Amino acid sequence: MKNISNNKKGELIINRIFNAPIERVWEAWTNPEIFKKWWGPKDFTAPYAEVDFRVGGKSLACMKAPDGKEYWSTGTYKEIIPYKKIVTTDSFSDKEGNIVSAKEYGMEDIPEELEIEVNFKKLENRKTDMTLKHGKFPEGSIIKSAQQGWSQSFDKFEEILK
User: Fold this and answer.
1) Cα distances (angstroms) measured from residue 140 to each of 26, 63, 147
2) How far is CA 70 from the centre of its chain?
3) Please, are residues 63 and 44 in contact by the beta-carbon 8 Å criterion?
4) Which pLDDT value is given to residue 140?
5) Of 68, 86, 72, the residue nearest 26 (C-alpha)
6) Which domain holds residue 36?
7) How many structural domains comprise the chain?
8) How many CB atoms lie within 10 A of CB 22?
9) Mean pLDDT computed over 104-131
10) End-to-end CA distance of the chain
11) Which CATH number covers residue 54?
12) Whose CB has fewer CB within 10 Å in the chain, the N or C terminal residue?
């Protein structure tokens, strides 16, 4: 089940229900080897992911487009409530994890730092309700592209949980 909305200006919200126990859904976010299997839109790969999963810890990941272009991103974990919530910053970076402008990747009007919040809820029959909030997009930004990218990533996410 998919539900996409934009409650506040500049905030993308995607809700999905996965036919998998909460532990597996949580691990797909916290285990870099599993994360690499779903991160990025359709036809993109994720050749690199590093996760220091603790408040104040950092993540670094690479999405590789079909044409071979690499898109690096980094974040710092701000809040972690096991099996309930993850909050992290989200920024474009170089492969060393240094924050760079979105212009380095040919994108305009994206602030250096966005925020991602993921909430998890255990449901009956070993299912999990997961809601992603990706915020701080400016007006006229590429929020529709972000929506498409996340939706395609979560389609892959669903496949790896089977």
Assistant:
1) 32, 24, 14
2) 16
3) yes
4) 61
5) 86
6) 2-161
7) 1
8) 20
9) 94
10) 15
11) 3.30.530.20
12) C
Which DSSP state fits 159? H
Q: Average pLDDT, whole number, for the chain?
A: 93
Per residue in 37-54, pLDDT (tens digit) is 999 999 999 999 999 999
In the predicted structure, residue 115 carries a pLDDT above the cut 80:
yes
Phi, psi of 35 (to 5 degrees): -55, -45
Mean pLDDT for the stretch of residues 73-78: 98
Name the residue with tokens 């305009």.
Answer: 108
Residue corresponding to tokens 């299912």: 127
Record the pTM. 0.92
Share of the chain above pLDDT 90, in %: 82
> What is the Cα–Cα distance from 58 to 89, expressed in whole angstroms?
9
